[in-house]
Each structure stands twice: as C-alpha cells, then as structure tokens.
Design goal:
- The complex is a heterodimer of chains A (301) and B (486).
- Chain A contains ten helices and eight strands.
- With 301 residues, chain A is of the alpha/beta class.
- In chain A, strands 2-1-3-4 form a four-stranded parallel β-sheet. Chain A has a four-stranded parallel β-sheet with strand order 6-5-7-8, with helices on both faces.
- In chain A, strand 1, helix 2 and strand 2 form a beta-alpha-beta unit.
- In chain A, helix 2 (30-40) packs across helix 5, helix 6 packs parallel to helix 10 and helix 8 (228-240) crosses helix 9.
- The radius of gyration of chain A is 20 Å and the shape is globular.
- The model of chain A is unreliable at 10-19 (pLDDT under 50).
- With 486 residues, chain B is an alpha+beta fold.
- Chain B has two domains: 2-16 and 26-78; 132-478, Beta Barrel (Porin).
- Helix content of chain B is 20%, strand content 42%.
- Chain B contains seven helices and 17 strands.
- Chain B has a 16-stranded antiparallel barrel with strand order 1-3-4-5-6-7-8-9-10-11-12-13-14-15-16-17.
- In chain B, helix 1 runs antiparallel to helix 2 (24-79).
- The radius of gyration of chain B is 31 Å and the shape is elongated.
- Classes of the chains: A alpha/beta (301), B alpha+beta (486).
- At the A-B interface, helix 1, helix 3, helix 4, helix 5 and helix 6 of A face helix 2, helix 3, helix 5, strand 7 and strand 8 of B.
C-alpha cells in the first residue's frame, strides 16, 4: 500500500509534464481503486483515498485528499451518498472542474446497477439512510462486472487515445472475474439459506448473491451505534431465531459483535468488506476468496 | 447462450447414462465433466435467482413507482445542497439515479443491470429546481456567577457588539436558515440568514462562487466569512466549543465577515498548498466606515497540510488581515457610553491543527488538537487621543472523542494588550495590569451527525474579577447532509 502510494505520488509529480501523463484516478474506496487498476493497467495512476481500516461513511476531508483531488482526472467512487459526509467537501476545495458532479470525470459505480432498498420515504428518524438505496454494492462481485464495463467506457471517453487498451483489459478482466465468480458461487453453496446476524446493514447484496438470510442487524437504525439495551433485545430475538454467526466489516468497532458472539455462543466473523480490509484481501480476486473462506469458516465453528 | 444450454442439456443426459467401471479413463473424464456441469449448474442457478429477484423487484417497483417518484423529487430538493457554503456546490449536483447528460457516451452501450432499473421519472414541477435548504437551531442555558456576562469587558480591548457570551438563563442564540444551489454550470450561490434572540434578521453570508475556473482557481464574491485563521470561516455551529475562543472575541468580534471578493488558488502539488487573498468593504469590526472608498480591508492567507501516517494528519495556516477603521463606534460598559476609533488594525494569525484517529477511522475514537496565535497592532486616534497599541493572544484546545457519540474537550486562551498613555487610563484600552484568560472544559454528546448536546464550564478570568460560567447548549441541523470541513 505504502509503495503504491509512493508510486502514485511519483506519478502524480510526473503528471506535471502533460505529454506523458497517465490518467490520474482518485478512487474513493479500495475496491474501486483495485477495479481502476484492473482496467486501466499502466495507463492510469491510481490514488486510493481510503483504506480497508476506515469507515467509508466517515472520512475526515484531510488536506492530503484535497491535494490529490486537485490533480485528478477522474474520481471513481461508490456514490449513492456513501461519501456524502466528506467527498463534496474535498471536491469543492480541490478547485478542479474535471471532477465536478455531472462531469465525465465523476464516476459512481452505484449508477450502473439497480440499487436495493430504495426508501419510499425519507426521514432522518430512520437513521443514516441513503436516499438512493443501499450503496454497498461491492459485497456482491457480480456488480463489479457491470460496473467494470461502464468504467472502461468512461476511461475511454476521457482518454480516447487508449480506448482500445481499456476495452481489451476490461474484456480480459470480465473473463477471468466471471470464471472466478462461478467458482466462488459453487464453493459457497453450503452457505445458502444460512441465518446470520450483521453489525451494520451493509451486506444486502452479498446476502442476495449467496442466499444468506439476515435475521437481525446489531444497529437499531443504520449508522446508529447499539446501546446495551438494544443488544439485549437482539439476544432475545436470537433465542427465538438462532443464527449461525454474526458478521461485521473489518473497519467496524468490534465490541457489539464480540458481545453478541459471546452471549449467544456463536462465532463472530470478520469480513474484509473491501480490498485491504483483511490480510488476505489483497486485490479484487482475493477479496471475495477471503470473504467466502471466512464465511465458510463461520459455518464450521 | 441458447446453444450453450442445448449443449449443457445434451451433456447432462449423457452424464446420466450408467457407466461400466472398466473404463477408468473415461470415468475420470466424466468426473471432470460432472464437476464442470456442477459449476455450470450453480452458475445458472445463481443467474436464475438473480433474474427472479430482479423480476420480483421490478414488479414491486412498478407498484411503488408513483410513490418513489414523489420521494425522488423530494430527494432532489433535499440532496441539492448543504449546511456549509462551500460543499453546496458539489452536493447540489445530480439526483442519484438518472445519469447526467455528460454520461451519454458511457450510457449508450448496453449495461444489463441498468436496464432492469426503473426508468427515472423526470420531475415536472418547479419544485425540482429548489435550492437545498438547511436550518440550524440553538438553545442555551447559562448559569454564571457572580457577574452577569452581559456587561463583560476584556481590559485592553474595545470590543465589537457580538463578542459577548449568552445572557443568563434560557436563550435560543442564533437560528440560521441557509439556501444553496448551483446557479448554472459555472456559478453556485449561497445565502445564510440568521435571527438573533431579539428576532432581528441578519444576512450572515450571501455570495456566489465559481465552479469551473481552470488552473485551480476559485473566486467568491458577495458577503462571506473571511478565510483567515482556522475557525473564522466556519459558522458558529461548526466550532468545537460553544463559544469562540477569547482571541477571536477580542480581535475579531467572534469572526470576520464582510462584503468583498476572494480569490483562492490551490497548487497542483502532492502537498496541500493553498493561497488566498481577499478585499472587503471594511464595514465589519475591526474595520469600520468603509474606508478607502469602500475597500477598507485586505487579507492574505496560506494553508498547507498533509498526513504524518495512516492515523495522523495536520493543517497549518498563516493569515494576515489589514483593516481600516473610520470612526468605529464600540460600546463602553465602563462609562456606559461609546468609544470612537479611527485608524488601522494589523493582525497576523498562525494556526496549527493536528488530528489523530486510529487507522484513519474516527468513528470510535479520535483526537483533535488545535491552537492559534494572534499578533497585532491597532494604531490611530481613540476618543481623540493618539494610540498605538500592540496586542497578542493565543488559544490551545483539544477535543477527544473517547467513545462513539461522546467527547470531552479542554481549552486555554489568553490575550494581552500593551500599556497605553495615561490619557487613556481607565478606558477600555487600559489593560488594568491584568492578563485576560479563560479555561474551558467541555462534555459533548452527539445524538447523531445532526444533533448534539453540550455542557461547557468556563473559569473566566477575562475581566479583572474572575467569573464561573456553566453553559448547556443544544445544536441541531436539519436539511441536507453537510460534508465536514477538516
């Protein structure tokens, strides 16, 4: 990661000489950084703004991020208001017309898939709800295939000179990744119908993909940390409707799921959520490999 | 696809035939084929499940379409902007679902998932172009002993009229309503009106900003808060404590905002490096009277900052403010009259901010340390007496979020004014041999990102006699989700 950042920094400095400039990609989350690298290869310089240890809802709009956004040709983000607490501030301070919303240099993965859980009413009494629907699409690898097509087209639109390069790399990625998805899906067959509890209600797409059955989230409302009273309610519910394990993203506070795990006598499974979330999740492929592996591990315990 | 399926079914029927155990090689092949078939079967099952889900979803969506359309148009109005001026621009942009015109080429190719999404319903009402509207509400409960904070002075300083603390007892402080929207592809606008507890409306900010100037430039024009210092540009509801630190109260009447123009340039470097310059009318304290034909104030500032490691980051700013006062009138609680000042005020501010969050994740724990140093001189005629007074001050503060929703903070602040000629002895400019200072402790509970309750205790030595002040405050914001400035 650090090497990557240094590399990106060097390339960004290099980008001051426009003749050899790579496409500067500002990726909001590691999964989109990884996808950008898969498609852009050595024609893009990818800067990933966040790590797997960070909550993508809550990032401080640090000066370093503003400096990176200043020289970016495109931002590649999840969208659907996931980054609403920090990205608009970075974009407004970066003084970079290329990445303004609506410009070709503003790419949001969630625009290319059908979002689930679009609320019919918006009320903050419901917690931290996303008006456009649940944004955490990267928990289902099939979404990546859809978004990768759109991203390759967008790269080609911004950098027409390398259009065929992006198209070819995308086709290759699609082939390899499609095969990998088939493999993961097969491996994950035993998980079908497994009842689970989740810490944050962020896994709906993965649950859809693998046929997991979410019994209860540990947050009373999305984004609201659970009180001990609410966790007691969860325990009661789990007595009536037992689950196999409770999952949380690597970046999340471990206390609620550890508590439930101990009291209910079920394993707590930590999932990477994004590239770099766990040691094993080094790129897009190992992200899902590691996820399936950990889920199956939870089943065995 | 169809051919694949026929092939698959052929293979499937073939695989179903009973086999003699003699053909060991064939058996291995078959096992391999079975494996492949199993994989294919899983794949198809997965696909079918997806299609079924999508179909079910589509049916549901069709039903929900009407209500969703209403929700969408409401959302557009809501998503259009934010509580803070600068983030409006970015937020005001697109409704999430339908792609922007600029996306046309990316959209033209068939994208399977997209096709299953319900077609975006175009908003038909005028309502769709409404700006983002946000409101900030405040409430105070102030207990203070022995002195009422209303007539507080800071010896050595002629204070502006907003530098005081909330009155004893219940009060609502300032309520704010802000409007923000993109005006066109090149401009964005922001309007913020506040109402004080006496029901007087006041235009806090009303400005336009450019959105697509090349070369890292942004121009802002209108009435706005100056970019000097660290907290000056933030609205009061965005401060870490309930009140402004002592130097901001003494030097800037809480914060400096005026009518004028600002230019900012962000260097295209890896290190964050921003330069800014402003010219103002010069009507707001410490300026007054719109001197120099209505260009009475000039400022300049440099911001820089970066990451130390994954967990730590910093910001530094150096700012300069030059303002002219032509017959500035300030209240004088000592004489129960007013004071007049004509002259120049120069002020330099050095600001340092350090933030720590484990692994860069501030949700559970984080720490913000900040401090600013002020150095200035006011030179001119004060109540018909020539004066040249050097002043300085600083504050340091730390706020530590020790668990989700809970944080605690400490602040120390002091200001100093040099002695004045005997002719001014006994006036507000006389420091009375006293160093004004204040120690503040804070406990904060955040109900969410949009609401908080604070309990703040100050041992206030700003006046000659010390004072103890206990302040309870709630602050809520409703309207669009504002992004947070560093």
């Amino acid at each position: 990661m650090r090497k990557f950042v240094i590399g990106a920094a060097l390339l960004a400095a290099f980008a001051a000489t426009p003749a050899y400039a790579n496409l500067n990609v500002f990726a909001c989350e590691p999964e989109w950084g990884a996808l950008s690298s898969e498609i852009g290869g050595d024609k893009v310089s990818v800067y990933t703004a966040t790590t797997g240890a960070q909550d993508p809802h809550q990032i401080q709009a640090r000066p370093s991020l503003i400096a990176k956004a200043r020289t970016a040709d495109i931002t590649v983000c999840e969208g659907a208001e996931l980054e609403i607490g920090w990205l608009p501030m970075i974009i407004s301070q970066a003084n970079n017309p290329k990445i303004q919303p609506g410009q070709p240099g503003s790419f949001e993965g969630t625009r290319y898939v059908h979002l689930l859980e679009q609320p019919t009413a918006l009320d903050r009494a419901q917690g931290d709800i996303h008006a456009a629907g649940n944004p955490h699409i990267q928990t289902d690898p099939r979404m990546m295939l859809t978004v990768s097509k759109a991203l390759a087209q967008r790269f080609a639109q911004i950098d027409p000179a390398n259009a065929s390069y992006y198209t070819a790399r995308e086709a290759d990625f699609e082939k390899r990744f499609g095969a990998a998805i088939a493999k993961w899906t097969a491996e994950a067959a035993p998980l079908k119908g497994t009842p689970i509890a989740v810490q944050h209600h962020a896994w709906i797409y993965m649950e859809n993909w693998l046929g997991l059955h979410e019994v209860v989230p540990l947050e009373p409302k999305p984004g609201v940390p659970p009180s001990s009273g609410y966790l007691a309610e969860v325990l009661q519910k789990l007595q009536q409707q037992p689950v196999k394990f409770v999952i949380r993203a690597a970046y999340e506070d471990d206390r609620p799921s550890t508590f439930i795990s101990e009291k209910a006598g079920i394993p707590a499974v930590v999932l990477p959520f994004t590239v770099g979330g766990t040691e094993g999740a080094k790129d897009l492929f190992s992200l899902y490999e590691d996820t399936i592996h950990r889920l199956l591990g939870g089943l065995k315990k | 696809m169809k051919r694949q399926m026929i092939l698959a079914s052929l293979l499937a029927s073939y695989a179903a035939l009973p086999l003699s155990s003699a053909f060991a090689d064939e058996a291995t092949d078959l096992a391999a084929i079975r494996k492949q078939l199993n994989a294919m079967q899983h794949e198809y099952e997965a696909k079918i499940t997806t299609i079924e889900t999508r179909l079910a979803k589509a049916e549901r969506d069709a039903k929900a379409a009407r209500s969703a359309a209403q929700a969408a148009s409401r959302h557009q109005a809501v998503a259009a902007a934010a509580t803070r001026p600068s983030e409006q621009v970015a937020q005001a942009a697109p409704p999430p679902a339908p792609p922007q015109p600029a996306d046309i080429s990316a959209e033209s190719a068939p994208i399977p998932e997209q096709s299953s999404a319900p077609p975006p319903t175009p908003p038909t009402s005028q309502n769709a172009f409404n700006p983002g509207i946000a409101a900030v509400l405040n409430g105070f409960l102030m207990a203070s002993s022995p002195r009422d904070t209303k007539n507080a002075i800071i010896p050595g300083f002629a204070l502006g009229d907003e530098s005081g603390l909330p009155p004893r007892g219940f009060s609502i402080g300032e309520s704010e309503i802000s409007f923000a929207a993109n005006i066109d592809p090149e401009l964005a606008g922001f309007l913020d009106i506040s109402f004080d507890d006496q029901n007087n409306p006041d235009v806090e900010e009303a400005y336009i900003t450019t959105k697509d100037l090349p070369g890292g430039l942004t121009v802002k024009a209108g009435r706005f808060l100056s970019g000097i210092g660290y907290i000056n540009e933030r609205h009061a509801h965005d401060w870490s404590f309930s009140d402004a630190p002592l130097p901001y109260r003494a030097f800037l009447n809480n914060q400096y905002g005026d009518d004028g123009v600002q230019v900012r340039w962000l260097a295209p470097t890896d290190m964050f490096l921003e330069f800014g310059a402003e010219a103002f009318r010069g009507d707001a304290y410490p300026a007054a009277g719109a001197a120099h034909n209505g260009v009475g104030t000039a400022t300049g500032f440099v911001h820089t900052g970066g990451d130390i490691n994954d967990s730590s980051s910093w910001l530094a700013a150096l700012s300069y403010l030059h303002s002219s006062a032509e017959d500035r009138v300030t209240d004088d609680p000592l004489s129960s009259g007013v004071d007049h000042f004509t002259g120049n005020d120069d002020l330099g501010i050095l600001s340092l901010v350090y933030k720590w969050a484990p692994g860069g994740n501030p949700t559970v724990q984080n720490l913000v340390l900040s401090g600013e140093g002020f150095l200035g001189r006011e030179k001119g005629i004060f109540d018909d007496v020539p004066v040249s007074q050097d002043r300085n001050g600083f504050y340091v503060q730390g706020v530590y979020q020790f668990m989700p929703q809970w944080s605690a903070g400490l602040r120390y602040a002091e200001v100093n004014a040099s002695g004045v000629s005997p002719l001014l002895a006994g006036t507000v400019l006389d420091d009375l041999g006293h160093t004004p200072r204040a120690e503040t402790a804070l406990l904060e509970y955040d109900t969410s990102e949009f609401g908080r309750i604070r309990l703040q205790y100050t041992h206030d030595d700003s006046d000659v006699k010390s004072n103890d002040e206990l302040l309870m405050q709630y602050t809520v914001i409703f309207g669009p989700h504002g992004a947070h400035r560093y």
